[in-house]
Amino acid sequence: MTIRRLGETLTRKIAAGEVIERPASVLKELLENSLDAKSESISVSIEEGGTRSIVVRDDGEGMDADDLHLCVERHTTSKIAQETDLDTISTLGFRGEALASIASVARMRIISCVRGEKEAHQVRVIAGDVEGPLPAARAPGTTVEVEDLFFNLPARANFLGTTRTEFFHVNRVFHRLALAFADVSWSLKHDERTILTAPHASSLPDRIAQVYGAQVARAMIPLEAERNGIAVSGFISQPDLKRGNRRDQLFCVNGRPVNDRGLSYVLASAYRGMLRRGTYPLAVIRIDLPLDSVDVNVHPRKEEIRFAKPRAVQEVLTQALQSALSSRYIVAPFLAPRPGELRERPSSSKTKELPFDLRRELTVRQTLRQEGKARVSGERRVIGQLQKTYLLVETAGGLEIVDQHIAHERILYEELCEQFHQGEVTRQQFLLPVRLELSFENAARLTAGLKELEQVGIVLDEFGGGTFLLREYPSLLAEGQARYGFQELAERLAELLARGEKVREALFEDLLAELACAGAIKAGDRLPLEEQQALVERLMQLQNPYTCPHGRPIIFTISREELDRRFKRA
Ligand SMILES: Nc1ncnc2c1ncn2[C@@H]1O[C@H](COP(=O)(O)OP(=O)(O)O)[C@@H](O)[C@H]1O
Ligand SMILES: [Mg+2]
Predict the structure, then answer these.
(1) What's the pLDDT tens digit per position in 352-378?
(2) What is the pLDDT of residue 177?
(3) What is the maximal distance between C-alpha atoms in the chain?
(4) Fewest CB within 10 angstroms: 16, 151, 175, 415, which?
(5) Is 474 a residue whose pLDDT tops 60?
(6) Domains along the chain?
């Protein structure tokens, strides 16, 4: 083996490989520079997914001729000066290598004019060779043009995806920064088509509306918590608005968009039991904390960071998420406020503890009956049942319409989960076991899942030939379920067991949700007034009265103001 010292051009290309992976990484670096230069308006125009060209124009502080000459060299930055600066980085960039890296793998031109000056200059760099600075014309700000990315690195160029793929990544980078910097005015063009224009937004909901549409913005819930110098703010989606992947989740730590497994995990956990598996909430979450409690210099593309005390950050986030998700914002409003108004609305009003204690071994229905007379709670008065499906409830603020099935399902689900997590679901034995006949396929699935079923409170004896005897069932549900029968439910449980082999936690969650759904009062069931009242009161005592385990809303409100407006009483 012979060890050689590599030439400058080669080392630069190698270094560039870490930072510049694809057009989207070029764009990210250029946008970060524009933001660091305190731009108020940034426009991007790309061709062929960014492989042909990427042009970023900003109205930031700009660079003079000397800076222009320096900025394309490696390890040149205006953002840090000495080692200790690394501990308190407030800019997005600091490594001083982005422009140099881009310049070594593409054709680049930078035109810039310092704020308050008249004369502009430009430099041209082709695969590392610098030409200029030369006089040029431009209003204050900077334009960076990058063409033919990887033209001198055929191997890398071969790894690039189709225009569509590359554009997908470019678009994502752009959207994330647009969400992170709402007060900046943004525009994006692809092959001369305008993709997004987002003028300066005065609030995050306004920016969310620009990026995702007004409907999404209206379905977002505000988030807020602060402890020990760690501040969490932002917006998350109501559980009935969701996505099939995590792409629309953004965490900004001290303004920097980052990927962090810990934070993502906390977000996912907060929605447990509210979203089906494989669906994810939208989120734009800011976390601000002292600069020296975060190490931003742990990833070449600065996409990850390291918290000095990750647990502390996760705890504040958990707290913020929990209170947001049990807040009244989850109620679907009749006429939602404009996105900008969301902010000013008062935060969650705590439901007060009611002197109503449900004995665990009884079903809600039994208890409801024993409770006798309708109770008039200070906060909510049930007016009656609408079409044997919805409960109408008078509140101080107006009218709430509650879906009786989903409300009862949620109550049963939370109680079941509680019993399950405390170690045992209380079971009731049937005097006469219930006979179930299953298809050959489903019978095999039930047989394989007998142990799991027992853990959620179901005891079955296998009889052979697809026949089972159901001997015990969760006490909480037994009476209600008996009215609806067990046959169909058994088939559904068998299918769940077949699907849920991988993640046991999730399997139990699914099973419990299925049982709660099956045993809950149905739409079309007539309920006496006192049962309606008890149901609503019980619902309001839950941790999360606003959505069912499948993510559907439970309560729909019509405010007094809305009614007044409709009747022109204002
Ligand atoms: N759009 C811009 N406006 C003003 N200055 C810029 C711009 N882009 C780059 N610069 C200057 O060039 C320097 C080098 O940029 P870069 O290579 O990205 O390194 P870094 O951002 O880590 O400092 C920056 O520190 C900044 O001073
Ligand atoms: Mg930079």
Answers:
(1) 222 222 222 233 434 444 443 334 445
(2) 96
(3) 95
(4) 151
(5) yes
(6) 8-198 (3.30.565.10), 204-329 (3.30.230.10), 364-555 (3.30.1370.100)
Extended strands (E) in 32-119 = 41-47, 53-58, 107-113
Instruction: Spell out the residues 6+ positions from residue 332 whose beta carbon is closer than 8 angstroms to its own.
Output: 238, 240, 553, 555, 556, 557
Q: Identify the helix (H) or strand (E) that includes residue 16.
A: helix 8-19
Residue 73: its pLDDT value, please?
A: 83
What tens digit of pLDDT does each residue of 114-147 get? 999 999 999 999 877 899 899 999 999 999 999 9
> How confident is the model at residue 72, as a pLDDT?
86
Ligand 1 neighbours by CB, cut-off 6 Å: 29, 33-34, 37, 58, 60-63, 71, 76-79, 93-100, 142
The structure's pTM equals 0.65
State the residue for tokens 């099956």.
Answer: 518
Q: Tell me the per-residue pLDDT of 518-538, one tens digit each, with 9 for 90 and over.
A: 999 998 889 999 889 989 988
Distance CA 131, CA 342 (A): 52
Q: Which ligand is nearest to the CA of 78?
A: 1
Burial status of residue 535 (CB atoms within 10 A of its CB: 0-12, 13-18, 19 or more):
buried
Q: How far apart are the first and last CA of the chain?
A: 88
pLDDT tens, residue by residue, 386-419: 999 999 999 888 999 999 999 999 899 988 998 9
For the CA of 95, the nearest atom of ligand 1 = 22
Q: Which of 31, 34, 77 to mutate to test the pocket of ligand 1 (most atoms within 8 A of CB)?
A: 77
Q: 198 phi and psi, to 5 degrees? A: -130, 90
d(CA 437, CA 435): 7
pLDDT score of 146 = 97
Task: Give the SS3 label for residue 12.
Answer: helix
State in Å: Cα 22 to ligand 1 middle.
19
Query: Do the Cβ atoms of 260 and 289 come closer than 8 Å?
Result: no
pLDDT of residue 347: 30
User: Above pLDDT 90, what percent of the chain?
Assistant: 45
Q: How far is Cα 15 from Cα 300, in angstroms, rounded to an integer?
A: 10
Backbone angles phi, psi at 322, to 5 degrees: -65, -45
CA angle 50, 54, 58 (to 5 degrees): 145
Determine how many CB atoms are found less than 10 A away from the CB of residue 292. 11
**DSSP H or E run through 145:** strand 141-147
